[in-house]
Write a structure and sequence with these properties.
By secondary structure, the protein is of the alpha/beta class. The protein is 46% helix and 12% strand. The strands form three sheets. A seven-stranded parallel beta sheet has the order 3-4-2-5-10-1-11, with helices on both faces. A seven-stranded parallel beta sheet has the order 14-15-13-16-17-12-18, with helices on both faces. A four-stranded antiparallel beta sheet has the order 6-9-8-7. A hairpin with a 5-residue loop joins strand 8 and strand 9. Helix 4 packs across helix 5. It is globular and about 80 Å long. It starts with 11 loop residues before the first helix and ends in a 5-residue tail after the last helix.
């Protein structure tokens, strides 16, 4: 137990530490009021978090599965927020954790506070979920869209607008997720709150869903957000201005749960991303020459229509050139020489921006003027981003082009920081407030230093506590020792091995199996071949990317009880399926990142320039953390039992294999071969 020096004082930080001690100590309020099990790991974490919050310092804390880290940061965080009238911002990666925090953990905190006289003053804390503006319906914009629908919408979209209007009569939240089926994007764009028209002067918080949510956010003691939105807001410059401290809002303080994903998500957002699909959608909102509809229809002028038509043609020519000349051999190409293509778009987009500025100056309706200026800003943003991408203007960023979609018809220009640490340092760690990074997996085989360096947090206080689970009793580990070598010449042999072995492994457990792949292509090849075998076992086979969302797949697996789920990247982390519905996790390949990925390649080059080896410094540590995440899907509570099956024999054959074996929760594993499975394959009866 960590002691509290001079904890009898009246300083806010010392009062917070005393509260935490009384709550989490053996025999403390959590045990007394909620009959929760005492966990010394949870107590240590709560103390460290309270110390960091009380001193406005930052902290890295790894807490193994089952520690109860949510309560360990929520209870001190809520207390500090309420006592000091400061907002606690909690950011997570997955929707499932957000739901757990909102629907379970915060209610547990509230129950504890109500039952404990010394904490009763905290029971009425307010919590709110921060969601992007574009997810909310704006009744004011809806009314204007209905009024102007003849000029804005094609006839077939009027029924969709009417459906939204009917839903608007009874929706309580105004969130697009509530409307099923989801509305057409080209119609929703005209009615959502992501517009300067939706502001406090135009929209009343009593009637506008976003303004109501915004008011709740401002009044909240606890604000829940996801990493993607957090970094999107930070990248857009949403931090408090000037010398005001705080991350999102003045004087707030932050906890980043599932923090192992933070560097990658931040990398995605502190760069540019634009596509032909997005630009054409914007131009069609201004004026669609085929339908004759759009914003400019309200300002009929052949010169205006011609300007948009010219930009559309330039967009098609520009992106077709990229696709046919540069992306004909592979879907991703890194850009390394400035002025790699002719800028066909800046001129037409500048022309449209000037045209919109002229229309806005003559507009007498203030709301209509704001809408026009919104579009002008968006057009100029595209122009500036395209110019930056062609010039490769930011030396600390890597630039690339890629094509996606089933028909390869979505072409994008992208950039990302080669080193995201300075961005995280400036936007999180140098904002003058406490920032806590926590996850079950922040360490690789050498500790937490590499993660700290990636986050710009080198030298930051860091600690780790292990899981309270008895993994040696709860988890059996099987490793295939005869997996065929990863070689294109053995592709058929590999596929046959995987199909045969996965079919065998699923048949040996009564509950459900999650198979984690590193390649969509390999996953789909195996899925197509193995489906009859899984069906013969009386099980359902679910495959990522075949219609159901991630959360729907997880819920289906929970419901089935013995299903088989094939997933790739996003299923290695954040999947929480306790009980027999997930009785086995199969790791098909060690999760090494693709070395040809533009960001990875650029970081490898920078690593070599520093005199380091990219595999040892970047590839291996990242794979170890992801490997740990995959393993962590299996045992979710103290009553769980399950089998971890690893089909990549490189852990036994390669020198780096020891680094992965060291990541296993215990070292009591069994090996098996394709032809000697019944003897060596260990499982629970």
């Amino acid at each position: 137990m960590i002691g509290f020096a001079d904890s009898s004082g009246n300083h806010p930080a010392l009062r917070l530490l005393k509260l935490v001690e009384s709550t989490f100590e053996q025999g403390g309020w959590l045990q007394q009021q909620l009959q929760m099990e005492f966990r010394p790991q949870q107590t240590e974490m709560a103390v460290r978090v309270a110390q960091a919050m009380g001193s406005d310092s930052s902290l890295l804390f790894e807490a193994g599965t089952g520690v109860g880290k949510s309560l360990a940061y929520l209870i001190p965080g809520i207390a500090y927020a309420v006592h000091n009238q400061r907002q606690l911002v909690v950011s997570s990666h997955t929707i499932s954790l957000q739901e757990q925090i909102l629907e379970k953990d915060l209610e547990t905190c509230r129950t504890l506070f109500r039952k404990t006289p010394e904490l009763s003053h905290l029971a009425n804390f307010k919590a709110s979920l921060l969601i992007g503006k574009s997810h909310y319906l704006c009744p004011g914009r809806l009314s204007r869209a209905i009024r102007d629908q003849e000029s804005l919408l094609q006839p077939q979209d009027s029924a969709e607008l009417a459906r939204i209007a009917a839903w608007a009569e009874h929706t309580r939240t105004g969130l697009v997720q509530e409307l099923q089926p989801q509305p057409k994007p080209e119609v929703w764009d005209w009615v959502n709150a992501d517009s300067s028209q939706c502001n406090r002067r135009n929209c009343n918080h009593e009637t506008c869903h976003y303004q109501k949510a915004r008011k709740q956010m401002e009044e909240a003691d606890v604000l829940i957000v996801n990493h993607a939105l957090l970094f999107a807001l930070l990248a857009a410059g949403m931090s408090p201005s000037g010398d005001t401290r705080g991350v999102l809002r003045a004087d707030d303080f932050l906890v980043l749960d599932e923090a192992h994903t933070v560097p990658d998500i931040a990398t995605d957002h502190f760069g540019l991303s634009l596509s032909n699909v997005g630009l054409m959608r914007l131009l069609h909102q201004l004026f669609n020459s085929k339908s004759g509809k759009g914003l400019l229809k309200k300002y009929p002028n052949e010169a205006h229509f011609a300007a948009v038509f010219e930009a559309e043609n330039a967009c098609v020519e520009f992106f077709n050139h990229i696709r046919y000349q540069l992306l004909h051999k592979r879907p991703v190409v890194r850009l390394q020489k400035p002025l790699w293509t002719e800028d066909l778009l800046s001129g037409p987009l500048q022309h449209i921006a000037e045209m919109l500025g002229g229309i806005a100056q003559k507009e007498t309706d203030e709301q209509a003027e704001k809408e026009i200026m919104d579009y002008r800003r968006r057009v100029l943003s595209y122009k500036e981003s395209i110019g930056s991408a062609i010039a490769l203007s930011e030396p600390d960023q890597v630039y690339w082009i890629e094509t996606t979609g089933k028909k390869r018809n979505n072409t994008s220009l992208r950039s990302a920081p080669i080193d995201v640490a300075p961005y995280l340092r400036d936007n999180l760690l140098r904002r003058g407030v406490s920032c806590t990074f926590t996850s079950a997996t922040l360490q690789d085989a050498e500790g937490m230093e590499r993660f700290a360096s990636r986050c710009g947090a080198s030298g930051t206080d860091h600690h780790a506590v292990t899981s309270p689970f008895d993994y040696a009793r709860q988890m059996r580990i099987n490793i295939a020792s005869d997996c065929p070598p990863l070689n294109p010449e053995h592709r058929t042999m590999e596929q046959k091995f995987l199909v045969d072995t996965i079919a065998f492994c699923t048949s040996r457990v009564k509950g459900g199996t999650l198979a984690l792949f590193t390649s969509y292509k390999e996953m789909n090849l195996v899925a197509n071949t193995i489906a009859p075998d899984i069906q013969k076992q009386g099980r359902r086979l679910y495959v990522q990317g075949e219609g159901l969302s991630r959360s729907q797949l997880v819920n289906a697996m929970k419901k089935e009880g013995n299903a088989v789920l094939f997933g790739t990247d996003s299923f290695w982390t954040g999947v929480d399926i306790p009980g027999p519905a997930l009785s086995q996790v199969i790791i098909v390949r060690l999760p090494f990142e693709n070395p040809s990925d533009p960001v990875i390649a650029a970081r490898s080059e920078a690593c070599i320039e520093r005199g380091e080896h990219p595999f040892a410094a970047i590839t291996l540590p990242a794979a170890q953390i992801k490997f740990r995440q995959g393993i962590g899907r299996l045992i979710r509570n103290q009553s769980d039992q399950g089998v971890l099956t690893l089909l990549d024999s490189r852990v036994l054959r390669k020198s780096y294999g020891k680094a992965f074996l060291a990541m296993l929760p215990h070292q009591n594993y069994a090996t098996f071969t394709q032809f000697n499975r019944l003897t060596n394959f260990r499982m629970f009866s």
